[in-house]
Records
---
Amino acid sequence: MFDSQTSPSEDLPLLNTFYFKQIFRTLVTACLVLVFHNSALALKIMLVNDDGYDRGGLPVLFDTLKEAGHDVTIVAPKTDQSGRGTSINTDRINQPLEVVNYDTNKWYVDGTPTVTVVAGLNYILRDNPPDLVISGINPGENIGRTAVSSGTVSAAVAAINRGVPAIAVSLGVNLAESSTGFPSTIAAYKPTSDFIVRVIAQLEATKKKNAKLLPNGVGLSINVPVNGSKGIAFTRLEQFTPLDFTFGELPGGGVGLQILPVSLPSDRTPNPRSEGEQFVSGFTTITPIDGDWSASDGVRARISDRLPVQNLLP
């Protein structure tokens, strides 16, 4: 899925480790398995998603992480919670929630992705906290302004905000395959899982001694194209999204919510740091996220200048 094409911009660094030939990757992965099995590099990982505990790419990612020697526990929603964003089950506060240990190191929670993460960190794994939370693999990219509605990304943010490094992993879909269950996406779960193993290994190899895998309050949102990747771009979250929501008249009558594909104008040069624009250009995107919805200090200063306190008080 990942070829050796160079970066879309010279000032956009690439993770060159990820561009080795397939046979060399296989050998490296095999060596990593031995290292993880026999050293402190093996991580305790909590695996969550928003599709449900037995759906999406979660089962494949679980097996791949286990094969790489990591100690993995699934704590995932009982049912499909796609698009729930940061929501919590406010109607269930102080009410019993179903929490089931359905297999060894596998749990489901009858709650939203955010509630599921809190259940995992504060209850299920409270005596054995994870080094890393991974959310995914989600069938469908989570990019741009739609990312804030994503249960996949929000689950990662919930972990970040509780002091645990997190990675959200989303895999693109071909909308033309919607009637056949997105076979290209299903076929890409394994190579995407292998990619995540390499990301973890690189983060582990480059972190400071006794430090967390990522800086405090920081996570990653990774989006992988379904039909092969030209390379890897380090990006930022911006407005552009390849799949956008709209509301209007439905083909069968009535009005309702719709999802529409969005393309870049043919004469537009993709922004090298735009998550959405790089993704539609065929690149795997790695976007550092922090879950902080505050505007920048400069914006905050300009707004405070326009709203002087003395003019707001009675």
Note: Residues 4-24 have pLDDT under 50 and may be disordered.
---
Amino acid sequence: MELEARHVVAVFKAFGDENRIRVLQMLCSGEKCACKLLEELNVTQPTLSHHMKILCDSGVVVGRKEGKWMYYSISEAGADYAKTCIDALTNVSPDATETELCHVG
């Protein structure tokens, strides 16, 4: 699977903040209302919206509106893609044997 750099960056950006990690940990137990996330994180609504946009843009989280509230959950497809990114970027080729030396000038 060919990974597009901008999509990989979006996934790692989503994982690159303590509050977003806390949101993901909360969502591991199932869908949560934004009001519950606000209460648990103790952040302002605009701050939560900022973090949720980054998580949703990465594809790892999906949101749905019900009445005046947003509900968020982990996307199975997004989670699988994130795992694929990590595997692809940390998988050492079995053919890798020697370090190539750089020769300058």
Note: The chain has one domain: 5-88.
---
Amino acid sequence: MTDPVRLPDPAPAVAQLPRGSGVIVRHTDPRARAHLARALAPLCRRRRVLLLIAGDPRLAAELRADGVHFPESQGAEARVWRRRRPRWLVTTAAHGGQALQKAARAGAHAALLSPVFATASHPGARALGTVRFARLVHCSPLPVYALGGITAQSARRLKTSGAAGIAGISGLTTG
């Protein structure tokens, strides 16, 4: 996931991602999001890395992105955009069990559940921890990706959680 403060230039990190990974451009400033997404789109295509645009389906369509990611508060949009763009991957953010159920009812393909661990993105937010995260994953009707405080070390603690994968900002980059 992109972040204007913690990962101002995500291109080097994207260049290291394995084929089939994904990038969610989640800059909240519309101008910055569009500028970054336009810069990353060719790199993602070359690397065969999926490109999702957070909260901006029109920009995703313009760039022929692979899909969209919605914040939890806009999760209901998943249904609309799955219908309009059936080939898109549509994901939502979730912060608990009810949000996972809502995302599933709205037709999201997957959810990013956070924060699993303490994170710089949301200082002071109560982390789910590995046990609660695993419980929520097992009760979820859709694939769940772990987000929040994810590093190479913390990811190992999620091996048996049932998570579909992991997501992060700066904790997975090298250098």
Note: Residues 11-166 form a domain with the TIM Barrel fold (CATH 3.20.20.70).
